[in-house]
């Protein structure tokens, strides 16, 4: 008879905390809890109690576990956790998850595509996608995610957990993770999260003597005073207050006959100490000694495989048929040594990891080595190409004492993981191989590890290891290998924004190459050098860069090096933009063709987004950007999807679709912040500012500009765009032309001497128009600007067309001037705000110089600005109409009743009507009744008012209404 406690003892404080956090997560207040302590201390038991309570509340439960055998399989615990819930319910079909399915496909098999594409491009993509999925699963009731044995988790899983922990605060999710309190990445994550106050870390200590008595009584089914004398003392002495050991010791007392049941009680019938003469290891040895010999051999073998194992692995190692294995496993389950592992169909696990550890430790070292060696050999012979088993075979060889062979096998598993794109797992496996390998093998492993570290973004460690490689002798890497390593690190450094290290690695590679004929390496270095030459302060490298890059592109295509060819065509496109967009697009088209011909989806996206950005700028056409977004979603790359959506948001602003622009900003802004995608996050903040600026909402614009600057945007290449595309246009909509000219001058000054690929800052369009209007520029200056490649962009071209019309009118060519103005119509369909601004400015000049039909043009512009609620611009058009002798229809819109502080924030007439009624604090239904609108519409207006005024809540809105409406009445 074996005894188990039916209740959790001695964890009242921890249980109460978990119950409270479960209640909180039901109200959109998520949190993370880490339960740490020694093996057997009760971490899993407490997590299980939390899971049972969640089930009673009706919360979805997701539960996964890590083990040493999953180190080569990234995200395995997360996949198990999702599978534990989704195998019953199926994946959610919510439309909002569609963009994240590809990223989640690695851990949700139902969302994998038949073509093998998709899957997260990086850990952050999967982490953000999982965050969205958990939010959906917990939307109605909250949900619980339990991850056990995190000390054995792979690096990728830990990175996802860290991301989740940092972003659970406003989500209906409680994360409970268990781990041993021992040095390692998981424990460091726990401590760091607690320091950041984003998680609670609970360290479980041993039970005291009263709690041990309570636990023994629960196990034996008697009151606390019914536990025989001496039993509690023995349990406390040997078990050390460890709940699992208390249970095991008590079970051995009962199983060995030292403690016997009599009626409703128990009595001591033998020597209690004899049950564990040499501690717990002997206790498990005694337990297994009662098994049949074959079953005993099987459990000992399983102990060497790790805390979890599969029937398939046992079959491969032992050669036994499945029927026999299942019979023996049933015996082990009945002995409560192992349990069925629900995470995988044919999986089993030791009831506690201590069992396997104790059984393995109880084997004589020679026997342990022999069994491990035979098992490793069987695994290597059966399936040499499987990641998990290759890793398992390496662990067994290490147990067998064959460190050198184990190191090579770890390295092979690491290289395979790297080839599959799992750089984190590759680093972990190669680090193990590097620790064990010797001589020339160690050098080879070091080379692979440097590569993996570069791919994983751990450049400092890669550079450190590179310096340890011998440069002479038999074991030294070949010159070709060293050149490849330096080139790879140079590229990684440049892509990571570390130009100094990139230049150093490039110089080292070039020095090693010297005058040797090695075209593939020469081509790769030419591409790296070309990208370096584009950075500020490296202009001396530019001469000849284009010719070298073109040779590299053509050589790479002819030599079957498609990735290098894509890099080279991308470089050529960047260089060509200074000469014209036709040439740049031709290079990108070549890049796209190579990527599609060789099945390189990441490079296909890069070609599409660059072609799409050019098409948007040149023609106002976003179809290629939409195609790039689709490509990013198919890849499961949220970072790339956000890049595409950020450009589409700016496109929506410029093309007069504020609703779509706002929707993209609202969806992506927080996500890019969480994912630490600084560049895209800054661009979205700038887009939000531009959205307000292009509606003449100066106050709202400046608030968003401030957010942009706080996010580091004030130091980025986006600064001239903020000045010339955002603030200058807003100033013109507010009829402050001197301010607009000052912003454009500041943008030009910032651009002077700084390479810049953002050509919408006014230098090639809006500023030349204002210069012509002010008489600071004439036909020669206009001709010079019009000849520049950036003048080919549609946003710039509309202002240059307007400037041409003004010059033609002044030159006494009214018919040509009028035709130029007519040409602005096609721009009004694409960029309505910009084109109507140009029309308003041209009409003023035409009115002064007496040519064309300025009255008709002003009426068109006034109608547009009135609809835009750009009050100052609309008023200026009406004033010019009166100056021209035209009648002006009165617009009784009620806008004159809106206080200036609200007007500048973009508050609409309808929103102000709602705002004015808030003085007496009526309920939403009363406001809806009085304005003859729905309560839902009232809610939308209130949400918009809070956003535009920047107030924290409705109470603050009530106070402002009482203040401003009262002032208006007094006035």
Summarize the structure in short:
This protein is mostly helical. Helices cover 64% and strands 5% of the residues. The protein contains 48 helices and 10 strands.
SSE diagram, text form:
Blueprint: H1 12-25, E1 31-37, H2 43-57, E2 61-65, H3 76-89, H4 101-104, H5 123-137, E3 143-148, H6 155-166, E4 173-180, H7 185-195, E5 200-203, H8 209-220, H9 231-239, H10 243-255, E6 259-262, E7 265-268, H11 280-289, H12 293-305, E8 308-310, H13 311-318, H14 322-334, E9 338-341, E10 347-350, H15 353-362, H16 365-382, H17 387-399, H18 403-419, H19 423-436, H20 439-455, H21 459-466, H22 479-495, H23 499-513, H24 519-533, H25 545-558, H26 562-576, H27 581-597, H28 601-619, H29 623-635, H30 638-654, H31 658-674, H32 678-693, H33 698-710, H34 719-733, H35 737-751, H36 766-773, H37 779-786, H38 794-810, H39 814-823, H40 825-830, H41 832-849, H42 854-868, H43 871-883, H44 900-903, H45 909-917, H46 924-931, H47 935-949, H48 954-970
Helix pairs in contact: 1-2, 5-6, 6-7, 8-9, 8-10, 9-10, 11-15, 12-14, 12-15, 13-16, 16-17, 17-18, 18-19, 18-20, 19-20, 20-21, 20-22, 21-22, 22-23, 22-24, 23-24, 24-25, 24-26, 25-26, 26-27, 27-28, 28-29, 28-30, 29-30, 30-31, 30-32, 31-32, 32-33, 32-34, 34-35, 36-38, 38-39, 38-41, 41-42, 42-43, ...
